[in-house]
């Protein structure tokens, strides 16, 4: 059942301090989500031995995201390709393309 994401993280408008620029900026998407998920694996302390199978075996330790989609919008209007509304681009109960099994709820699944 793996097609895209195993897990996801809210990654919209995350404030980070840029020391080189001496100021705050916001990051979105993978630039924010990947470090969040890496941090959860770090907190779990078993990143070197964990596998995707462990996530699926312990999916109850994740928040299941059931609303939303992969349609990029700008000013409330779709910008770019619009998905067909299937599980590959629309969140639903259980596994789906945009959110995988869900978002971390602590470190149980990791």
Structure description:
It is a single chain. The protein has helices at 30-44, 52-57; strands spanning 14-18, 23-27, 62-63, 73-74, 77-78, 103-104. The chain is of the alpha+beta class and 110 residues long. A two-stranded antiparallel ribbon has the order 1-2. A two-stranded antiparallel sheet has the order 3-6. Strands 4-5 form a two-stranded antiparallel sheet. Strand 1 (14-18) and strand 2 (23-27) form a beta hairpin.
What layout of secondary structure does this protein have?
Blueprint lengths: L13 E5 L4 E5 L2 H15 L7 H6 L4 E2 L9 E2 L2 E2 L24 E2 L6
Antiparallel strand pairs: 1-2, 3-6, 4-5
Can you write the helix and strand succession as a string? EEHHEEEE
Major sheet, described briefly?
2 strands, antiparallel
Query: Could you estimate the helical fraction of the residues in percent?
Result: 10-25%
Mean pLDDT: 86
Structural class: alpha+beta
Strand tally: 6
| Terminal residue distance | 19 Å
Q: What would you call the shape?
A: flat
Strand content is 15-25%
- Please state how the strands of the largest beta sheet are arranged side by side: 1-2
Radius of gyration: 16 Å
Low-confidence stretches: none
Separate helix tally: 2
């Amino acid at each position: 059942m793996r097609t895209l994401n195993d897990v996801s993280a809210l990654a919209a408008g995350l404030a980070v301090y840029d020391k080189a620029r001496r100021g705050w900026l916001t990051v979105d998407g993978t630039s924010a989500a990947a470090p969040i998920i890496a941090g959860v694996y770090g907190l779990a302390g078993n990143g070197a031995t964990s596998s995707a199978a462990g996530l699926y075996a312990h999916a109850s330790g994740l928040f299941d995201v059931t609303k939303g989609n992969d349609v990029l919008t700008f000013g409330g209007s779709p910008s770019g390709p619009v998905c067909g509304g299937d599980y590959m681009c629309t969140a639903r109960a259980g596994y789906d393309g945009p959110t995988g099994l869900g978002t971390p709820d602590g470190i149980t699944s990791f």
